[in-house]
Amino acid sequence: MKRILVTLSLLLLAQPLFAKELKELHDLPYGDHPRQVLDFYPAKSDKPTPVVFYIHGGGWQGGDKKTNPKAFNDKGISVVAINYRYVKQAVEEGVKPPVKAPLSDAARALQFVRSKAAEWNLDKEKIGATGGSAGACSSLWLAFHDDMADPKSDDPIARESTRLYCAAVNGAQVTLDPKPLREWMPNYKYGAHAFGLPNLDAVLSDREALLPLINEYSPMAHVTKDDPAIGLFYGGEVPVVGSSPKDPTHSAVMGVKLAEKLEETGVEVVLVHPGVKDPKYKSSTEFLIDYLTK
């Protein structure tokens, strides 16, 4: 009888701490601004779950965090979807350049999520970012940027890492530098609002003075060999470098150029666009599920 009781006690002690079901959370603040809020969609699991970190698109000027987490939750992956300050709000607050606001918000939200790992039953090492357009650009910026954690900070959230396990994005802008963008696509016009300027020609004319900021907020400028695996997904036309595509803002030409740099640097990359036959992954969702559940 004693042996049975001991066995039962050991079994009870071995039970996971997170056997209870966690509840969804909506509009949870990670900062003081009304747009610094996130939604949390927990996956049911007795062990810490991987996380998909969703950053919505909209040119850093619009959009919302609303998303459907089912495909990930069904595979045991939790989802966090964030809102962030738009560039117009950054201008109102005097943030320079304006793009600093949405990007630094994404980093802070990621740190906030990591700070909740124990409470939310999360594997803080396995976080993959995703998004489309500007949200894709933000995801890549996080993926490539050096860790922005401040280990000496009095703020425990600021001590958390901003590095990612992987990222899979849709229609991503890969740089904010107008010079290579115009060389790749002569009709490229997007991105001046990131620096509070009226058009890309204005960025080009002031490029030398802006270059430190361009490099700081351009994902491609931060690529190093220790970066995580990347999935790049594009629709539209078959990319031709030097052409003028119908939708240059989301053209796979950018994916081609980023993939070249990642391959040269030794970073694992999957590039999918209409010119790729029989891709291993048909979507960013498939990529994230595979990488986060390996």
From TrEMBL:
InterPro entries reported for this sequence: AB_hydrolase_fold, BD-FAE-like_dom, GDXG_lipolytic_enzyme
Gene3D superfamilies: alpha/beta hydrolase
Superkingdom, natural source: Bacteria
Signal sequence, renumbered to the chain: 1-19
Keywords: Hydrolase, Signal
One Gene Ontology term of the molecular function aspect: hydrolase activity
SUPFAM superfamilies with a match to the protein in the record: alpha/beta-Hydrolases
Annotated ranges, domain BD-FAE-like: 40-241
A Pfam family that the UniProt record links to this protein: BD-FAE
Protein name: Alpha/beta hydrolase
